[in-house]
Fold:
Amino acid sequence: MEKLEEIRAKMGECDDKIIDQLVVRMGYVQEIIEYKKQTGIPIIQPEQEKKQTDVLAAKLGDNEFEEEILDIFKYIVKNSRKIQAKSLFDYNIFLVGFMGSGKSTVAAGLKDKLEMERIEMDEMIVKKQGMSIADIFAEYGEAYFRNLESNTLIELQKKSQAIVSCGGGVVMREENADHMKKHGRVVLLTAKPETIYERVKDSTDRPILNNNMNVEFIEELMSKRKARYEAVADITVSTDGKNVVQICEEIITKLIALDNK
Ligand code: S3P
Structure:
């Protein structure tokens, strides 16, 4: 028994050293993010993370715990992203834009890069109501759905660092802009009607488009909503011809520039 306690005590000393070194390492993460912010160097650098993993694997060589240690480092890197995001954004990021403008895809990309919580407004509503969006529209009508959206946005004011992918029509109510801006920035994603059509043409879960699946209708509705989208947006990013990493980087850069104003 005494022997066991002795080993545990030694392990405790190891933990102390690990904690000390993690604190030092996390301090460096903060230094790096400050440096990137000041110099305008891209925040997301996937090639650097890959390089880091290769260096680690080489260092560990045929270490008997290589697999386990590499797994631990995955969490270290994940948490570095969290520290990075905390120092970048102390508010919610609301993604708005027309159906098919890429809100959900970009929200997933940002979550991956920033380790911030990701919320899909439509999913929240579906879960709470126990009904699909199409069924809510069919049974209770659009105005009822819009009330659910406004209530969801009020509920989301409790969040502090979340990425929220909003339903495409959220901007149409003026009060919704206030709900979003209370603890957040609004990012407008845009795309050409032709691009939108290509992205949504096979989906059947958007009641507004279900009997109007064509470029002309999309163009017309988009132009009706354009002024509202623009009035609500803190920043705007076009998604045509760009990949998710490029869009995420552009959002991050533009938000930092806005915060530094
Ligand atoms: C709507 C957009 C949809 C969904 C509902 C209404 C709209 O969300 O909220 O079908 O009015 O633009 P997505 O933009 O995520 O498709």
Observations:
- Residues 92-259 form a domain with the Rossmann fold fold (CATH 3.40.50.300).
- Strands lie at 92-96, 117-120, 162-165, 184-190, 235-238.
- The first strand starts at residue 92 and ends at 96.
- The CA atoms of residues 194 and 215 lie 6 Å apart.
